[in-house]
Amino acid sequence: MVHTYRSERLVPPSTWSTIRDRSLELLLAISLALGAASLIVLSTGNPEAIAMIAGASFCLIAGGLATVRLLESLEADGVPGLE
Predict the structure, then answer these.
(1) Which of 25, 34, 47, 80 is most buried by a 10 A CB count?
(2) Which superkingdom is the protein from (predicted)?
(3) What is the pTM of this model?
(4) How many beta carbons lie within 10 A of that of residue 36, not counting itself?
(5) What is the pLDDT of residues 14-46, one digit of tens each?
(6) Quick one: 9 exposed, middle or buried, by C-beta within 10 A (0-12, 13-18, 19+)?
């Protein structure tokens, strides 16, 4: 008799890994776009807009990194309460 291993996890770790990788790619693209926007605004000489872009960049990057950490936790431990 062949025993097959059946995971008791609701969502397989490979799914979380794929979502995490896509999130990192999106975070990199957003960071590059915000950097380019900052340079364009800098060349126009509008310092108030640079501060706004810097604040938005900080918030988006911090949120993106928090999302990646959450996905790593879900990949390792699964969904709490469901698994």
Answers:
(1) 34
(2) Archaea
(3) 0.77
(4) 10
(5) 898 999 999 999 999 999 999 999 999 999 988
(6) middle
